[in-house]
Design brief:
Layout: E1 2-6, H1 11-21, E2 28-30, E3 41-47, E4 50-57, E5 60-67, H2 72-88, H3 102-113, H4 115-124, H5 130-147, E6 154-161, H6 184-212, E7 215-223, H7 231-244, E8 252-258, H8 265-273, E9 278-281, H9 288-293, H10 300-313, E10 318-324, H11 331-344, E11 348-353, H12 361-365, H13 370-373, H14 375-391, E12 395-400, E13 411-415, H15 422-429, E14 433-437, E15 442-446, E16 453-457, H16 462-467, H17 469-490
Parallel strand pairs: 1-2, 1-3, 6-7, 6-14, 7-8, 8-9, 9-10, 10-11
Antiparallel strand pairs: 3-4, 4-5, 11-13, 12-13, 15-16
């Protein structure tokens, strides 16, 4: 697909809309019109005070025009959305929303207009379905008691452990991300040095946070699979966190145990003894054939056994991740997975719509599975999960979206009341600063006096992190400089 962006700046939204309606097309952007041999072209332009959009492919041509109004970006994007709907005969359930953070948008609209009017705008201005609007409203209500407590100097800490026993077929990590894509033996050699430097970075980050007078609210250890670390390495990592950071106002400490083939009693005991309050044990599916399809080298029973082991160890807040649209999964088998997860009675369940990234094995192999290509099927799966989790007393508490998601759906975290993961809310709603340590970590500095957000990126891959570690510390100096700018603007 060729996307022409002619004399207007709305490249990002236009490109994302192309992916909503044609998720498997590679989009080539051109800023000058030149005839193309591509089988599909999307022309968008501002000409003589008008927006013009035109879609041409084997199915025909659809064109729309409208005068440029006060809401310039909205005018262009809504016109393109209307043309796509007419051309394809599809009306996405999430409407013309393409951003990662729809709940953030709903929150802003609610603060401006009230809940009822914000919901109406979701439905009528952004064309979000009644069902997805209701889900968004429920999510905002659930997270409000947590976000209302955020103070101007609050922050969360994210710690990245980018190692896994195998790389899942849908994983977006590309070559160089240690366990995720290299041999186990090669990756094992990196872990001791990575672990050592990570602890150093944590200590240096704590000094920065202390000097700025920031208040730590939540700690989240993600990956990858953090439990690829040994029990001793996990204990030492959390010990350094507790000794280096002021934990007096920290309300939660989450570790993604994730893969059941990395969990044993020694690691669970180490995490619990260290004060970890929440863990994830992520099956993605409880169907052995689907696990095999996505490259997981464990069985569904191993996941169940790991969950029971965590309960026996004493964990009272456990999350389980599931994915809609995995290769080989059917509506019946997905429903079976939901019922098996419900029977385990976890406190949190996160339901993801499969997002196929260009670097994933599934995408590179050219395999487009039925559940991902069939929006109606993906929607049925997601609707069943919502129905059954609601019946079990769980409420949606955070929600975000990605490009190329099955059925153009969303990822939703569900929780029993009182067990919500505050970090997930903070990072997805962008309500407070997140300081990140480790490979692939992204520090997000939230201006406490506005909606502005600044980012500082760590190197993505573990080998880069190790070889260029001094540069990581140099980038950390940017945190204090940015906060100085925040505070100058206030005064």
């Amino acid at each position: 697909m060729v996307l022409y962006i002619i004399d207007h700046p709305y490249h990002y939204e236009a490109e994302n809309l192309c992916r909503v309606f044609y998720p498997f097309d590679r989009v080539t952007v051109q800023h000058e019109f030149m005839p193309s041999d591509e089988n599909r072209t999307v022309y968008t332009a501002e000409e003589n005070g008008e927006y013009i959009v035109r879609i041409e492919d084997a199915d025909g041509k659809t064109e729309r025009k409208a005068k440029v109004g006060a809401e310039t970006e909205y005018g262009m994007v809504s016109l393109l959305f209307d043309a796509f709907c007419a051309h394809t005969g599809k009306m996405p359930r999430c409407g013309m929303l393409t951003g990662i953070h729809p709940i953030k948008l709903l929150r802003q609209l609610t603060e401006q207009h009230g809940e009822a009017e914000a919901a109406r705008l979701f439905r009528e201005k952004y064309f979000v379905s009644n069902e997805k609007t209701a889900l968004a409203v429920r999510t905002l209500r659930a997270q409000k008691p947590i976000t209302d407590k955020v103070r101007e100097n609050d922050y969360s800490l994210y710690i990245s452990v980018p190692f896994c026993p195998t790389r899942c077929a849908y994983c977006s990590f590309s070559s160089g991300c240690s366990f995720v894509s290299q041999s186990v033996e090669k990756a094992k050699k990196q872990i001791p040095e990575y672990h050592r430097l990570l602890l150093e970075e944590l200590k240096e980050t704590a000094k920065v946070a202390d000097a700025l007078g920031l208040n730590l609210r939540a700690v989240y250890v993600g990956g990858g699979t953090p439990t690829t670390f040994s029990a001793e390495q996990l204990s030492e990592m959390i010990r350094v966190v507790k000794e280096s950071f002021d934990m007096s106002q920290c309300e939660e400490l989450t570790v993604e145990a994730g893969r059941p083939d990395t969990i044993d009693r020694a690691k669970l005991d180490a995490l619990l003894k260290s004060g970890v309050s929440r863990i994830s044990i992520n099956p993605q599916t409880l169907q052995d054939n689907v696990l095999e399809n996505i490259g997981r080298r464990h069985t569904a029973q191993q996941t169940v056994d790991a969950f029971h082991l965590a309960r026996e160890a004493g964990f009272t807040n456990i999350n389980m991740d599931l994915i809609v649209g995995l290769p080989g999964d059917t509506y019946e088998t997905f429903c079976d997975t939901i019922e098996k997860v419900i029977a385990l009675d976890p406190e949190n369940v996160t339901v993801h719509a499969l997002a196929l990234k260009r670097s994933s094995f599934i995408t590179q192999s050219g395999e487009i599975n039925k559940a991902h290509a069939d929006a109606a099927l993906a929607d049925r799966m997601m609707a069943y999960a919502e129905k059954r989790l609601t019946e079990r007393g769980l409420e949606p508490y955070y929600l975000y979206r990605q490009s190329r998601m099955a059925g153009n759906l969303e990822n939703t975290g569900w929780a029993k009341p009182g067990t919500e993961c505050a970090y997930n809310i903070f990072t997805m709603d962008e309500t407070e600063t997140v300081l990140a340590c480790g490979a692939g970590g992204v520090t997000k500095l939230k201006n406490p006096y506005s909606e502005d957000l600044s980012r500082i990126f760590n190197f993505k891959y573990s080998y880069e992190y190790i070889s260029r570690y001094p540069e990581i510390l140099e980038r950390k100096e940017g945190i204090a400089k940015q906060y100085e700018q925040f505070r100058k603007r206030l005064h």
